[in-house]
Design a protein that fits this description.
Chain lengths: 246, 424
């Protein structure tokens, strides 16, 4: 359906379930964050939280922690903003339960599966849908390779990769920061809701709601299934403390 | 040792003095100076900047990695064959001109239409023609200066190449920042023109003919090649070069990654870390060349290599930006020594065998392996065991290079009688 989603599906496969659950609990604006057409700059994505019923995959281990800080998942049906949050219907394999490899994160809140809240129920992976040519009636913007700017207008680097969760929703953007002629660049993973879009703006269509210093000092992204991610403020204790590599 | 059999009379004709006695010689010398400068300029455009450019063209990381690997593999695979090819072709100037034209083509491919086919093709073309260009420059230097004047000539080459690198980095950095990233490749392509012009006097230089030692006699069979490639001095030097490059190549990458994480203008600092050593190389190279003639290659090699473990150890203890930049001076010293010694030692070993470029290709291959393996190895170690361990590994490799040079590497400077004969 929407091009960004399809692209994302190609980029990265499913990530770890517990991580997803954690992210969902901490960043309620996921659904709004997924929308590439969102135009309002609402820095801490939590403001539009109720409008974003996160849908975690129905996986066995997600049931082991009680809902905590997160509001009930099914407060509201999906917003009608757009289709970007629709589960990926392309070639993505169905989310499969995986053994939990990394540390348990007790605080990860459980969110009840609510597939219909994010759009049409995905058909079985091997089914063929009768797709038709149409238009997405929202302004869209290309993301990969686009420069990202700070609130002050500094160029922070560019988006070089997007990570999606097992449902195909974009969760993390990888930003290539700094360097000189390609020497010394750092790739930093940022939580998707931290990015804001103004599709009309030709030059600065992507804004990141963190300061340059914050981005700069964030840990470097290594290709891994559960990277350390720059997340909105309230979520940092979880995210930063949970995954200490060195 | 093994280089004796060739009669020396035809290799060292009296007119081919390093000092540039004849006017055509001196103008050819200047041509070679400028050629070195512009080639270094051009090569800056083909560096890691390609990854930045392609990511701006919405290339995925996987495709960029593939493109860069294609470039690395094609240059590794063509080092030795390209050396043999340059040996086989008489007119080195023509090879140099052709290689530069290939650079033009590949820069334009990047600039005009960076689709996969063209980018991969451009990477291959650039990889291969770099392998012919390096030996061609060395061969032209040898032609111009003779074996005895080689050290001084290479000092000059290194000086101009360093100026070209430094200016190129500054120019292309500014171009990418203020104009556009695509413009960097147009600039690269444009810079191939002055490089070609710089070759003109060299072409004329060949014409007078008599004073140019046409590539020395060619052994008829592959046996000569094998003998050169099995030369103990060359093999040990290949080992040294590989170890040194293994320790050296990822050092800047690692430290600049740390620099990026702090400070208010890390890009400028990294730029300084790149340009400063080039300034040092430009200043020190002629002296290093003279030093290598007076005190021998081995000493220069050992001093140059010794800079590496020192640098790596200092980097492991500090990321203070001022100190890091200061320590980059050591990189300049090492760079000057290494840059001059690679062609110099190879010319000591192989200049008379007619296999000079083949031997140079072999060293280039060793260097290529060192840098390719070490970048991934250092990245892996720093991911898994921390940055400091990576620095220790690099320091240890540098130390190994020093030890190999101290205990195994023989002096290759031509014997004194030869030298006197050459100097008169």
């Amino acid at each position: 359906m929407s091009p960004p989603v399809q692209r994302v599906c190609r980029l990265h496969g499913a990530s770890r379930v517990a991580w997803i659950a954690l992210m969902v609990s901490t960043a309620w604006g996921t659904l709004a964050g997924c929308s590439t057409t969102r135009t309002t700059a609402t820095p801490p994505a939590r403001e539009d939280a109720p409008a974003a019923p996160p849908t975690a995959p129905a996986e066995p281990q997600s049931a082991n922690a009680p809902p905590e800080s997160a509001p009930p998942a099914d407060v509201q049906p999906a917003p009608t903003t757009n289709v970007a949050a629709a589960p990926c219907v392309c070639s993505q394999p169905a989310p499969k339960p995986r053994p939990k490899k990394h540390k348990p994160k007790p605080r990860a809140a459980v969110t009840q599966p609510e597939p219909q809240s994010v759009g049409p129920v995905p058909p079985p992976t091997n089914a063929v849908v009768n797709a038709e040519v149409g238009r997405i009636d929202a302004p869209l913007t290309s993301i990969l390779g686009k420069d990202v700017f700070s609130p002050k207008g500094e160029n922070l680097g560019r988006v070089v990769d997007l990570l999606a969760d097992s449902e195909g929703r974009v969760r993390v953007a990888i930003i290539d920061f700094g360097g000189f002629l390609g020497v010394g660049t750092r790739r930093i993973a940022v939580d998707w809701p931290l990015l804001h879009f103004t599709p009309g703006d030709k030059d600065k269509s992507l804004r990141l709601t963190v300061t340059r210093e914050k981005l700069q000092s964030a840990p470097e992204y290594k290709d891994s299934d559960s990277p350390r991610v720059l997340v909105p403020p309230a979520a940092t204790p979880d995210a930063a403390g949970a995954d200490t590599k060195k | 040792m093994l280089q004796a059999p060739t009669p020396r009379s035809e290799v060292e004709p009296p007119a081919a003095r390093p000092s540039g006695a004849s006017p055509s010689n001196s103008s050819a010398g200047r041509g070679l100076d400028w050629f070195n400068l512009f080639v270094a300029n051009i090569q800056t455009g083909f560096g890691p900047f390609i990854a930045v450019y392609l990511s701006g063209q919405s290339w995925t990381q996987t495709s960029i990695g593939l493109a860069l690997s294609i470039g690395t593999i094609s240059s590794m695979a063509s080092q030795i064959p390209a050396g043999a090819l340059v040996d086989a072709i008489q007119n080195k100037t023509r090879i140099a001109a052709f290689s530069v034209l290939v650079f033009t083509a590949s820069a334009l491919m990047f600039a005009i239409h960076p689709i996969r086919l063209f980018v991969y093709l451009a990477e291959i073309l650039h990889g291969v023609s770099s392998c012919t260009l390096g030996p061609a420059i060395a061969a032209m230097s040898l032609m111009l200066a003779g074996r005895m004047g080689m050290a001084l000539r290479l000092g000059r080459n290194a000086r101009y190449a360093a100026v070209g690198n430094g200016v190129g980095a500054a120019l292309m950095g500014a171009c990418g920042q203020y104009v556009s990233e695509r413009a960097v490749f147009y600039l690269t392509a444009a810079l191939t023109l002055p490089a070609l012009f710089a070759l003109l006097p060299l072409r004329r230089f060949r014409k007078p003919g008599g004073n140019v030692p046409a590539p020395p006699r060619r052994p008829q069979s592959g046996a000569g090649s094998l003998r050169i490639l099995a030369d103990r001095r060359l093999l040990i030097f290949c080992g040294c070069a590989m170890l040194f490059t293994f320790g050296n190549a990822p050092l800047l990458m690692l430290i600049s990654g740390t620099l990026t994480a702090k400070g208010s203008n890390p890009s400028l600092l990294i730029g300084a870390c790149i340009v400063l050593p080039q300034i040092v190389v430009a200043l020190a190279s002629p002296a290093v060349g003279r030093f290598a003639d007076r005190f021998g290659r081995r000493l220069v090699l050992i001093i140059g290599f010794a800079m590496l473990p020192v640098r790596a150890l200092i980097f492991s203890t500090t990321a203070n930006s001022t100190l890091v930049i200061a320590v980059q001076v050591l990189d300049g010293i090492a760079g000057a020594g290494f840059g001059i010694l690679v062609p110099l030692i190879v010319s000591d070993v192989a200049a008379r065998s007619g296999r000079f470029n083949l031997a140079l290709g072999a060293v280039g291959f060793a260097i290529g392996i060192g840098s390719t393996v070490s970048t991934s190895a250092a990245g892996w170690i720093s991911d898994h065991f921390g940055m400091r361990s990576a620095f220790y590994l690099l320091a240890a490799t540098g130390l190994a290079a020093v030890l190999l040079a101290v205990f195994a590497m023989p002096e290759t400077r031509p014997a004194a009688d030869e030298e006197e004969e050459g100097a008169r």
